[in-house]
């Protein structure tokens, strides 16, 4: 196997830890990814438009967020290296996105278009398994977050976030973390000041 670019080597490490591909499938799968970079606060996916790409984050932090009809904003998920990103439901359902995908910092990715990815999903069972496991893992995280939002106190949601992702306070601006947790920014600051982090 030829030497891989650092980005593809990182992608292969993540895939091997999730659901390794055969050599032939890896060759096909690795061939569809292209380098892509974006500046800070760049919207990569716009609500009401199709999601055309699956992203693999190499550098930077991004978020998926939603605006309701009263222009209230809800941060739904953060992505950062090394993980997949984009609006997955719109991508896999070939539908318009209900959400925005935005960079919070300058970001570097590999990205694959759905027009290149879908034929591999359709013809290579190991690629289909990889995608299914990835989507299932994302769904599991969403369900866990719903339980936290509906049953945990604001302070417990904050503590759970720190248990799950202790590094997140250094990666993501606090106003977005407060929004993600459904906590008033003032209370979020109080939690930070009260807990020795």
TrEMBL record:
It comes from the Bacteria. Gene3D superfamilies: Jelly Rolls (2.60.120.10). This is CRP-like cAMP-binding protein. It comes from Runella defluvii.
């Amino acid at each position: 196997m030829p030497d891989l670019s650092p980005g593809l080597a990182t992608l292969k490490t993540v895939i091997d830890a999730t659901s390794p591909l055969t050599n032939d499938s890896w060759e096909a799968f690795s061939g569809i990814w292209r380098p892509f970079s974006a500046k800070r606060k760049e919207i990569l996916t716009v609500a009401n438009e199709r999601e055309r790409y699956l992203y693999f984050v190499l550098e930077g932090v991004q978020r998926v967020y939603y605006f309701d009809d009263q222009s209230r904003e809800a941060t739904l998920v953060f992505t950062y290296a090394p993980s997949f990103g984009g609006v997955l439901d719109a991508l896999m359902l070939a539908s318009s996105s209900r959400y925005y995908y935005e960079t919070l910092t300058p970001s570097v990715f590999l990205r694959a278009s759905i027009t290149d990815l879908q034929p591999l999903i359709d013809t290579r069972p190991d690629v289909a398994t990889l995608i299914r496991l990835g989507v299932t893992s994302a769904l599991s995280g969403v369900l866990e977050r719903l339980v936290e939002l509906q049953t945990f106190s604001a302070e417990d949601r904050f503590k759970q976030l720190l248990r799950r992702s202790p590094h997140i306070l250094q990666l993501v601006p606090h106003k977005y973390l407060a929004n993600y947790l459904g906590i008033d920014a003032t209370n979020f600051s109080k939690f930070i000041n009260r807990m020795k982090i």
